[in-house]
Design brief:
34% of the residues lie in helices and 23% in strands. By secondary structure, it is α/β, with parallel strands linked by helices. The chain has 3 domains: 115 residues, 2-Layer Sandwich (Beta-Lactamase); 136 residues, 2-Layer Sandwich (Alpha-Beta Plaits); 236 residues, Alpha-Beta Barrel (TIM Barrel). The strands form 3 sheets. An 8-stranded mixed beta barrel has the order 11-12-14-15-16-17-18-19, surrounded by 4 helices. The chain has a 5-stranded antiparallel β-sheet with strand order 2-1-5-4-3. A 5-stranded mixed β-sheet has the order 7-8-6-9-10, sandwiched between helices. Helix 8 links the parallel strand 9 and strand 10. Helix 11 runs parallel beside helix 13. It starts with 27 loop residues before the first helix and ends with a helix.
């Protein structure tokens, strides 16, 4: 018997589908859905989805909170980092995919697949990224690691043993990293021989690379680190590469108790010394003051609101099988000189006011005017979690709907799944919004913020599967299983499904075959600017002088 679903707003008419063989619901462990993240590159804030700490094997307090902190976990020379992958991403979809190694402990390294999509700022520079980090647990086995990772693991374990020995006898351990010019380095064995006079029983000399070395001095206080680097330079004065020698040093426990951080700090000191032309440099643990440019927001939202320069940029959502337009998703944008939209990323938080409410309120006004002027149009409008939590949102929504009778059945408010985890009052407000006659869509479906039991209680008409699961469908069997499970769950509850980030025909056909009802992505059209009648009137007035 075919199942039938009826949308209560008339937007999602009942659609009959033949039931397919249902699979046993896998556990979250067997699904291995990966870890979802969001990275605000302007503020460098890194946010994680549910279960990230457990998946990465870290305490919650140790989860990297910034992009810079996360970059410190990335092993050098073992794949393109996320930031580099974003910088080299091509195409209008702004998708990126890369693979690299993360080191959590001296002897714990895993390979990860990192895939997502970035949004630009008004200047076209990467400003926000959202993606999925999938750990390859098998690759973490020591026997399967590349040789360079094995060597670095052995080095870090030796450094950690040196730190532990220094702490045992109440001493300080100093790690010195040296670099020489490529054509003058000579043999590392010769360098090790020259440095032997300054080494004690538990000290360690090791090769970091073709032209780099590390010297771990077990009993060397931080106050003596500058003297140790000077002595090292003196021992190397007769070496052909002495003129090109640069050193960086860090101390434990003064700077850290962990070998991974100690090596990173020493390498950072070396990089700083190379940049400044200094022969030796001790790591400076003092936080750097932010530059004035970094403190300034790249886009003045308040000015854009006051000048009423924000516009709607609409991207089509189509029916999966017929490809007929179903509705348009509207987002805040600016109008470029060429007439196209300049998309704007997430709204920053301000202490003085709920900026998200002001922006979403303006977008609601524009959407309501558009629906009034175009009786055949249907719009989906995303609303932030901060807006939903604000007590002024519901009266604002009711006022705009009341001023334009008849548009409510053609308006869908998109609610992020993460909002349901941030505020328990959201459920009641969703029911209140539903009572106004609008449609409700839950975006980011599958991220893990909502359990199947909670999903039953939500008055939603549409579940939009998170694009981080859609982008890698062609190559990832895990994501295929995830998406099919999400579609099964929605069909069981009688709720329509949509998929975003659909950029190619192969993915579109897969999703349609699995029972996804609506598709959105570059395959069906990029966002286009929608000018209001008042805006057009103003432009004509200015053109006439």
């Amino acid at each position: 018997m075919a199942t039938k679903r009826q949308g209560r707003t008339g937007l999602f008419k009942g659609v009959s589908r033949s039931p397919r063989q249902r699979q046993a619901s896998p556990t979250s462990r067997s699904l291995a859905i990966g870890v979802i993240y969001a990275w605000d590159m302007v503020s460098d804030t890194l946010s994680w989805g549910p279960g990230a700490a457990e998946a990465l094997g870290l305490p919650s307090r140790d989860l990297p909170k910034t992009g810079q902190a996360f970059s410190h976990l990335v092993e050098p020379g073992c794949g393109l980092s996320r930031q580099d992958a974003i910088g080299t991403a091509e195409g209008s979809g702004r998708a990126y995919e890369t693979r690299y190694a993360l080191r959590f402990e001296p002897d714990r390294v895993v390979m990860v697949e990192d895939a997502g999509r970035w949004q630009p700022d008004v200047e076209g520079r990467p400003a926000f990224a959202r993606g999925q980090l999938r750990l390859d647990a098998v690759s973490g086995a020591r026997d399967l690691l590349p040789a360079v990772l094995k060597q670095r693991s052995e080095l870090l374990c030796s450094i950690q043993n040196g730190i532990n020995e220094a702490l045992r006898i109440s001493q300080t351990c100093t790690l010195i990293v040296g670099a020489l010019d490529d054509d003058e380095a000579g043999t590392m064995a010769e360098i090790a021989r020259k440095l032997r006079p300054m080494m004690r029983r538990h000290d360690l000399f090791t090769v970091l690379g073709p032209h780099r070395f590390a010297l771990n001095l077990t009993c060397c206080p931080a106050a003596d680190a500058p003297s140790a680097t000077k002595r090292l330079i003196g021992l190397m004065k007769d070496h052909p590469a002495a003129a090109s020698l640069h050193l960086g040093a860090a101390c434990a426990p003064d700077h850290t108790f962990k070998a991974t951080k100690l090596l990173r700090f020493a390498e950072q000191a070396l990089a700083s010394g190379l940049e400044r032309g200094e022969a030796s440099k001790l790591y400076d643990a003092r936080p750097k003051a932010p530059s004035p440019a970094a403190e300034q927001a790249p886009f003045d939202w308040i000015a854009a609101l006051n000048s009423r320069s924000l516009i709607l940029a609409c991207q089509p959502m189509v029916e999966a099988h017929s490809r007929a337009p179903a509705l348009m998703q509207a987002r805040a944008s600016l109008s470029s000189p060429e007439g196209g939209p300049i998309p704007l990323g997430p709204v920053p938080r301000l202490k003085e006011a709920n900026l998200a409410l002001l922006v979403d309120g303006r977008m609601l006004e524009l959407a309501a005017d558009h629906l009034k002027d175009h009786p055949g149009a249907r719009l989906a409008l995303p609303v932030s979690a901060k807006t939903l939590q604000d007590p002024e949102w519901l009266p604002m929504l009711a006022a705009h709907l009341g001023a334009r009778p008849g548009i409510e059945s053609r308006l869908v408010i998109e609610v992020p799944e993460a909002a349901l985890a941030e505020c328990r009052k959201i459920l009641g407000r969703l029911h209140a919004m539903k009572a106004l006659g609008i449609g409700l869509a839950l975006t980011g479906f599958g991220a893990g913020y909502v359990s199947p039991g909670q999903l039953r209680m939500l008055p939603v008409d549409l579940l939009k599967i998170d694009g981080v699961f859609i982008q890698p469908l062609k190559r990832s069997t895990d994501d295929r299983l995830t998406v099919r499970t999400l579609v099964d769950r929605a069909q069981h509850l009688g709720i329509a499904t949509a998929a975003e980030w659909v950029d190619d025909e192969v993915t579109a056909r897969l999703l349609a075959g699995w029972g996804v009802d609506y598709l959105q992505g570059a395959l069906f059209g990029e966002p286009e600017a929608v000018l209001q009648s008042s805006t057009l009137h103003q432009m004509l007035k200015e053109a006439r002088g």
